[in-house]
Known about the structure:
Elements: H1 4-24, E1 70-74, E2 79-85, E3 88-102, H2 113-129, H3 140-158, E4 162-174
Antiparallel strand pairs: 1-3, 2-3, 3-4
Helix pairs in contact: 2-3
Amino acid sequence: MRKLLPVLLLILGLGAGVGAGWFLKPAAEAGEAPHGEVAAESGGHGEATGGHGAEPGAEASHYDPEAGPTETVRLPNQFVVPVIVDGRVQAMVVIGLALELETGYTFSVLTDEARLRAVLLQLLFDHANIGGFNGLFTSGEALLSLRRILREAARRELGPQVTDVLITELLRQES
């Protein structure tokens, strides 16, 4: 009986957690499709950055970059971002990124990487300064929001051939 009780409590706790998650999940808003699907009112593009049928200033809770043939280019070095609280480094965030580019676009490490890294690193510093790497920073919506701003910055720097910025690694190390 002593060995059975912890197993029963574990199963009961797991069931209660799953049930609570199921009942407390947010309901989809009008015009919003479930994750991975495109709402019929959006014009079929699934773009969540304010264009293609979305209301100005409104952001959808999902992010679907344009589909099509792409190539992925991993940026050679990780980004290291300090999380500063009250003038002291509280943690360090290490993040690895990759670019998803239209097929045929040539990304030159020699000519494009340094400029792109500077822009992306500044955005990551700004994200850390507003508390973007505190709390539940690995939640789906938080990461999609970060990917959106990184994608837009990469597009401004390299052009519309950048279809997405992928977060390939993410680590937060407390000091």
